[in-house]
Structures are given as structure tokens and as C-alpha cells.
């Protein structure tokens, strides 16, 4: 079964850091780009970051650029999201998703991990 | 990276068909404008319904179909069922490894 499972969420103070992990199984992880998408309470989906299959190309939403870093370990089938200088507005459920195809459709989503930024 | 425009809500009765629109500029949709559509039930993860504009992943009902005309992509759900009540999002790859989502549409089955 193709699946991804996020972990690492929690409560953090403004200005703090957190590292999210997403472990993949059931597919050839090293052949797929991966992405992080977040959803603030009661709001819609917001793309956060994408990393290519080899890990050499990454991209970020303007709202997190310079604060978040995406990386992957193709041996451990895991993608990470290192978040620093966290703000109240980063509070959200963070979803990891597998991408496929030329147009990066997200065909497998995790259940999400909640990040709460609050003092 | 502005969100694609979707209606905030749509509704329909069981058995009817509804269409959800997703509007953006040519730059929002990228070179080919082939969006994907996701369904999200409350408290659940999103689920892919349509990719590359009109293709259905394995296991997705034929009641879901996608199309595009000009600057508007559309998701049509035919034969509405109670279980279709959910939020729906369009998503476009705009190049440079960047994705953009629509604002989301809440579907109510009356």
C-alpha cells in the first residue's frame, strides 16, 4: 500500500524551530518529487515547499522562503521540513504528499501533523 | 503566488450534477493549464480526484470529471450523493517546482 506518514508536529513558541518528518512506503520513493502543503485552522490548502526526486532542486512559497528548508533522504525514504523563526501564522496542519506526472499531481497524502505556534 | 479563484460554496440535490469552477490567468495555470482536483472531507486528508485536467486515478468514480476552457478549469460531479459533501480544491503546477491551490469550494448536498 502506497502511504506517507508525517510526524514531528507540536507546540512551539514564536521564533522557535521544529523539524517535520514524512516517511514513505509502498512506492519507489527516490523516483518521486515530494511536497509539503499546510492548512491553517478553518482555512484552505496552501502549498509550502517541493523537492525533486534527487533532492537537488527545491522551491518554497514566498510566505516561508528563508525560514523553512525541505530535504530528503532517499535511503531512509523520508522527506523533512525544517522550520525556523516560526510565526503565529505558521500554525496549521502540515501535510506531506507524493507527486507524480509532469504536472506534479499529489496522489498520496498523509494524515497531517499539527504545528501550533503560540506563547 | 496568488490562489486560484473558486466559488466559496455550491449545492445540489441527490442525483443532480454540479460544476465547480477554478479560474486563473495563463501564468497561474502554467504552460498547459492541466490542473488537478482534490476532495477533502472534514478532519480528513485531501484525496486526488482528477489529474492533468481530466484524468481519473484508479478507484475514482466516473461521476467525477474535469475539463478546461480558456482560463477556467472545471470539476463536474454527476449523480450527486450524500457522501460527495466535502471541500474541493483545484491545484495547478505553474512551473519552477511551484504549485498553487484554489481557494476551495464547499459542496453541500441538500
**Oligomeric state of the chains present here:** heterodimer
Percent in helix of chain B: under 10%
Shape of chain B: globular
Q: Give the overall shape of chain A.
A: globular
Low-confidence stretches of chain B: none
Mean pLDDT across residues of chain A: 97
Task: Give average pLDDT of chain B, whole number.
Answer: 93
Largest chain-chain contact?
A: A-B, 30 and 29 residues
Strand content of chain A: over 45%
* Rg of chain A, nearest Å: 13 Å
Number of continuous helical runs of chain A: 0
Number of strands of chain B: 9
Compressed to H and E, one letter per element, the order of chain A equals EEEEEEEEEEE
Account of the 3D structure:
The complex is a heterodimer of chains A (119) and B (110). By secondary structure, chain A is mostly beta strands. Helices cover 0% and strands 53% of the residues of chain A. In chain A, the strands form two sheets. In chain A, strands 2, 4, 5, 6, 9, 10 and 11 form a seven-stranded mixed beta sheet that branches. In chain A, strands 1-3-8-7 form a four-stranded antiparallel beta sheet, with no helix packed on it. The radius of gyration of chain A is 13 Å and the shape is globular. Chain A starts with a strand and ends with a strand. Helices cover 4% and strands 45% of the residues of chain B. Chain B contains one helix and nine strands. Chain B has one helix at 26-29; strands spanning 9-12, 18-23, 36-40, 47-50, 64-69, 72-77, 86-95, 98-101, 105-109. In chain B, strands 1, 3, 4, 7, 8 and 9 form a six-stranded mixed beta sheet that branches. Chain B has a three-stranded antiparallel beta sheet with strand order 2-6-5, with no helix packed on it. In chain B, strand 5 and strand 6 form a beta hairpin. The A-B interface holds A 33, 35, 37, 44-47, 50-52, 57-59, 61-62, 95, 97, 100-112 and B 1, 3, 30, 32, 34, 36, 38, 40, 44-48, 51-52, 57, 87, 89, 91, 93, 96-104.
Amino acid at each position: 500500500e502506497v502511504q506517507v506518514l508525517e510526524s514531528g508536529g507540536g507546540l512551539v513558541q514564536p521564533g522557535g524551530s521544529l523539524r517535520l518528518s514524512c516517511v514513505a512506503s509502498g512506492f519507489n520513493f527516490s523516483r518521486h518529487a515530494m511536497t509539503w502543503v499546510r492548512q491553517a485552522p478553518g482555512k484552505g490548502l496552501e502549498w509550502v515547499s517541493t523537492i525533486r526526486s534527487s533532492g537537488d532542486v527545491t522551491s518554497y512559497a514566498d510566505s516561508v522562503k528563508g525560514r523553512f528548508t525541505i530535504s530528503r533522504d532517499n535511503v531512509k525514504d523520508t522527506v523533512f521540513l525544517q522550520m525556523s523563526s516560526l510565526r503565529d501564522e505558521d500554525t496549521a496542519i502540515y501535510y506531506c504528499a507524493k507527486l507524480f506526472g509532469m504536472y506534479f499531481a499529489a496522489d498520496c497524502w498523509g494524515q497531517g501533523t499539527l504545528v501550533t505556534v503560540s506563547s | 503566488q496568488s490562489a486560484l479563484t473558486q466559488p466559496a460554496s455550491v449545492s445540489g440535490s441527490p442525483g443532480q450534477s454540479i460544476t465547480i469552477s477554478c479560474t486563473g490567468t495563463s501564468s497561474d495555470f502554467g504552460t498547459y493549464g492541466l490542473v488537478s482536483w482534490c476532495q477533502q472531507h472534514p478532519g480528513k486528508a485531501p484525496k486526488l480526484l482528477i489529474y492533468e485536467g481530466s484524468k481519473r486515478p484508479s478507484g475514482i468514480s466516473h461521476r467525477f470529471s474535469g475539463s478546461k476552457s480558456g482560463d477556467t478549469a472545471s470539476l463536474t460531479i454527476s449523480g450527486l450523493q450524500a457522501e460527495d459533501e466535502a471541500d474541493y480544491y483545484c491545484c495547478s503546477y505553474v512551473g519552477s517546482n511551484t504549485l498553487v491551490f484554489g481557494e476551495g469550494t464547499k459542496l453541500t448536498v441538500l
